[in-house]
């Protein structure tokens, strides 16, 4: 026995079971504590970041960038320290470290530097309002002049000192063009003018014509807006210092500025010598573009004429497109001979300055294109460019339906070709038969377009000259042509032409025609001899001439009599060998009649006949189909054979089974056909019958036979048949039934059967051992005979008959004692007891069931006979109590047993009748249900149950201690028969179980019963009184879901948290509400306008934030009982006067801008709203607008000056300034309230 292994003590496990590489050993500070310190440090760092961000929300943008750099550095230092300490579970891999650093960078960027999305930008306009109201830190009290939209500090006045301005005509030195007068699809050009430091209000410019050299002065007066017709503003830069105006040019010529004034009527400086060339727009068109040009392939280049106008040199781009979806864009450049301009190299200025080089020039171009591939081509000019760079997109104008598409269509036709469909090695032959023999030469036409014209020549011999024949014409839609050759010789194609082009002749282009010769045949014959009987046939050798294949035909005569007419043999070779061996003896004659070849058919021949006396060898063969012979053991079989040769004959045959072989002989047979009678087969198995030898007794010749043997399958015994009917077989009247029969033997079986006592016999065939015979009449069926594929069989004597009878129809037992009426509670049966079966009576022609209450669960139990399952069809008729239309429904009830329970209708009061129509079981369908030859009808009455409802179910509200004395509840009782019993339930406050009360012998007065409440409703809370059920004297009862609620409420009170007699708009006035069952409603008024506030269950302090000036007063506080009533108690008057916050407006609250020249003064006007005396402050910052009066963006403007004015008695204050900047109000105070800085 092995010694037990001692267990390790748990104390031996080290304190740190898992290794750790933390910088701070876990023995001094465990992992969770280190993680807590790290997370706390991170949270503290982010809290400092948020505090810093709130501090710079009112600061300069430079502080924001410094904050971004500072806090990003601190975040990186924290992550590096965290990675160095290796705190368990906080060791970040490189990927996570990068992700964390990226997230912190994005957060810092959004907080400090992203100008548009940064929360800092939002804080600039909202933080001072939110934090300043509740006492924000000191950094929120600085710079409050930068409120964007403040309703009490309105307007700003900006003073701008404007410098001198300049104008530059066409700053990018562009060239422009104007379209011809008849071309209105191109917009007029606009010449840009760059203005720096001012906006034009007056402009003069000149136009010098290229054609006449005359100069015309044009004057324009402003202001110039974006919609001005000649000179309009296009765009300006962000700071508003520079702007571009566009001058529309409507004529060709040289444009120069003459004079420019700004809005102050001061001159704008510009370059007087600078000019802009406006030339005529280039134009390119295709001449005769509407005409389609047809050209044959290989006929040289295609010329496309193009007319081009404008300023040379031109660059024309055109597009070539083919039907093969190939597209090419090509360029051509051209200029008039000897043309020169200052825009080109080598320009020599003329002695007298002129603009003749800028006039519109015109030139005709021709584009030569070598098109060798047949197809359809389209040529279109897409773009034209002139000498100074003006480009006209012609294709774009066409796409916008501003110009017609000028497309020149060129169709390169493919030349047709023709060839002969013949083999030069095999000449076409003319068959010399008929009146006009000829041959047909087929022609193949390729390509081209019909109609075609084909020419050919005829040459009889090589020594003769070729003769031109009449051309062949081929109509449209046909590409097949033929040459009819009537004479032998050489036929050669000469030319072909289609509707457009001359074609060419392809190989083979010639064909030889000869006359076919008549076929002939030469016959040689010799006998086929046998050593015993002599000649047994004849061999015929036929030799042909002509063109194969050949066919030779002959007649066969025996003993001078025609035996076979027109026997034909074919051969693909010029020699044919035939062996003619008749199967009977006699004198045979063969007469050859015709010969045929590939060209001629049935050409008569004159050949001597072949004569031969023939004695065929003896032979024998089986006759008929012997593929599947079958028989039974002990039976015999006959086989028919046919003999050949000269009789009489002797024949030997063998009967073989396995290795057992028996020889049999039939002698002196005189008939050509006979039946061999085989001996009886003694054993089962497969037997083979083989023909051995046959002897011709007339000549003494013997021959071994080589014919296929006959197989015979022998079974073990005869088949048997027996009925499988141990009991009588039942079936429905008018139906059929299958009788089972068991068979033995081999398939198929053949049966005969009949009815005992009748002579009629029926036959049937079965492929299965278990056969079914279908019969339709009752009786005793007897098997007559049976046979299978082998032999006749036997009928099993004990099972040779089967008794077939009709099944019994389904019936219903309608004796009153066998019918049961079962179900729910009967009249006067106490609740909880089970009612026994109730008696059914017979009244006249129907059965009467006992009355039932409405909605009672009742069934009618019926006894049935037959074969389950059963199916009953019946008609249910319902007649209402108060009259009305009858309701008739056809219903079906099914049952798997001999007892059927029929549901009784009780959902409506009235009279219900059930008339049974048909009954079906497993055998019979739809058997009529009758009782004493009358219809079966059951009838009963459904009584209406009583109903009880509260007259008023509206919720009742009462104040505490208001209910004094008894209260009554009115209950309305309808239907049923009194007196009644009521079940009532009362649910008290703070009780989980309701109390039930029962009232018996209730007699209502005019349908209403006054029920007295049994208890006083003195406690606060919700009471529920419900009528559960009502029962009449017949025991019919019904539930009543009718409930009324009583709510007993308390009276609340209200007191102010602090006494305030005066307040400003925006201040909060708070009150405390005391009560036990919220919610409460507080009613108050503002300037005698009533208001209501609701306090929920978790809030008992009413707070009002003064939204407008006026007298605020508390009216009452209550707990709501109904829409117009409440529980309350008298309160002392509590009111507060609310004063409006003062307002200061600079420039009437608008953003006013004054443009000053140096030395001028601007007047600033401040308007006050409120009650004097007033005190206010403003700050002057860097100008918030540029010289073009556009708001500046980006860096925040610096504060340049701050001033305060006190104890002003007037509502308006004015002062003057000559310093540039924006004046913004930051603080206002009147007699009662103040707003802004220091408030």
Q: What is the strand and helix layout of this fold?
A:
Layout: H1 31-56, H2 61-85, H3 94-112, H4 119-133, E1 153-154, E2 156-161, E3 166-169, E4 176-178, E5 190-196, E6 200-208, E7 215-221, E8 231-236, E9 242-248, E10 253-262, E11 275-280, E12 283-286, E13 293-296, E14 302-310, E15 314-322, E16 327-334, E17 361-369, E18 375-385, E19 391-393, H5 394-399, E20 407-413, E21 417-420, E22 428-431, E23 439-446, E24 452-459, E25 467-468, E26 472-474, E27 480-485, E28 489-497, E29 504-505, E30 510-516, E31 520-530, E32 534-545, E33 550-558, E34 561-571, E35 575-580, E36 586-596, E37 603-604, E38 610-614, E39 619-622, E40 629-632, E41 638-644, E42 649-657, E43 660-669, E44 673-677, E45 685-696, E46 701-704, E47 710-715, E48 720-723, E49 729-731, E50 737-744, E51 749-755, E52 761-766, E53 770-775, E54 779-787, E55 794-795, E56 801-806, E57 811-813, E58 820-823, E59 841-843, E60 846-848, E61 852-853, E62 858-865, E63 870-880, E64 887-895, E65 899-903, E66 910-920, E67 927-928, E68 930-931, E69 934-943, E70 947-950, E71 956-959, E72 968-974, E73 980-987, E74 995-1002, E75 1008-1012, ...
Parallel strand pairs: 1-87, 2-88, 4-11, 13-20, 21-29, 22-30, 40-47, 48-55, 49-56, 60-69, 61-69, 71-77, 79-86
Antiparallel strand pairs: 2-93, 3-5, 5-9, 6-7, 6-10, 8-9, 10-11, 12-14, 14-17, 15-16, 15-18, 18-19, 18-20, 21-23, 23-27, 24-25, 24-26, 24-28, 28-30, 31-32, 32-35, 33-34, 33-36, 36-37, 36-38, 39-41, 41-44, 42-43, 42-45, 45-46, 45-47, 48-50, 50-53, 51-52, 51-54, 54-56, 57-62, 58-62, 59-60, 62-65, ...
Helix pairs in contact: 1-2, 2-3
